[in-house]
Amino acid sequence: MIEIKHIHKKFGRKVVLQDVSFTANKGEITCLIGVNGVGKTTILHAIMALTPLTKGDIHIDGEKVTKKTFEKVSYIPDAITMPGQMRIKDAMEFMNDFYRHWNQQRAHEMLQFFRLKPEERISSLSKGNTAKVNLLLGLALDADYILMDEPFSGIDIFSREQITDVFTSHLIEDRGVIITTHEIQDIEHLIDKAVLLDQGEVKREFDVETVRAEEGKSVVDVMREVYQG
Ligand SMILES: Nc1ncnc2c1ncn2[C@@H]1O[C@H](COP(=O)(O)OP(=O)(O)OP(=O)(O)O)[C@@H](O)[C@H]1O
Predict the structure, then answer these.
(1) Can you tell which superkingdom this protein's organism belongs to (predicted)?
(2) Residue located nearest, by CA, to atom 27 of ligand 1
């Protein structure tokens, strides 16, 4: 389980997160929802210890986040970090050399799943295929938790559909996923838990199925209540 415990974050004098707490379980998809600039990426960076916190703690499976917890989590940023001149197969080789928990078999399965050509250069890929390669590079790591920052942003409906198919496939297995988005429609049916953020705070954290069964409300219904009052 990833436990976010009372975290605060300031950049200079700007307060971004104020006492944010929530949990994300293994085997579940947790979605962080909020408008641009609310602090979603900052939370993912904090889980990866890429940004120091002003206050609060983060634990992964009961262990405080440190360099030792790195291999438990794979962070998939909203843009690909591999150089454009690399071919897809070079990027895969690089990952294989660099990470001991890289799973080459899963990487090849994902190439087929997304119908990507290993010879293609990253710079010549469409936006949708770039997003798929980015996802492949993150999901092929044998990590217990996956953090995905806006995997659908700026890509067409067919690529979005293919990416959402990943969530119901064995490629996710029983890993814990935290995904950020401000476009919930694509994945509403897939998520287990939603965390609604506003002005640096968690306005509501809820189990999607429970709210659907007990209150008859969808994630969008709850978002309307929280954000529109
Ligand atoms: N390194 C930094 N220095 C100063 N301010 C920063 C830095 N990183 C982020 N911020 C600010 O912190 C706030 C939260 O940013 P963050 O990227 O976490 O938001 P977000 O919810 O992920 O937004 P988006 O949906 O646009 O990706 C923003 O106001 C941003 O300008």
Answers:
(1) Bacteria
(2) 36
Parse the chain into domains and list their residue ranges.
Answer: 2-80+146-228
Residues flanking ligand 1, CB < 6 Å = 11, 16, 34, 36-42, 182
The CA distance from 29 to 25, in Å, is 8
pLDDT of residue 42: 95
**Nearest C-alpha to atom 3 of ligand 1 is from which residue?**
11
Residue whose CB lies within 8 A of the most ligand 1 atoms, among 13, 18, 42, for a mutation test: 42
CA 36 to ligand 1 center in whole angstroms: 8
Residues 87 and 188: their CA atoms lie apart, in Å, by 34
> What is the band of 171 on the pLDDT scale with cuts at 50, 70, 90?
confident
Instruction: Report pLDDT digits (tens) over 99-114.
Output: 999 999 999 999 999 9
Residue nearest to atom 29 of ligand 1 (CA): 37
Q: How far is CA 133 from the centre of its chain?
A: 15
Query: Mutual orientation of helices 127-139 and 157-167 as an angle, nearest 10°?
Result: 10
Q: What is the CATH number of domain 2-80+146-228?
A: 3.40.50.300
ipTM: 0.95
Give 37's contacts (C-beta < 8 A, 6+ positions apart).
none
pTM of the model: 0.93
What the block records as the tokens of 163 is 């990416």
Closest Cα to atom 7 of ligand 1: 11
Mean pLDDT is highest, among 75-79, 92-96, 186-190, for: 92-96
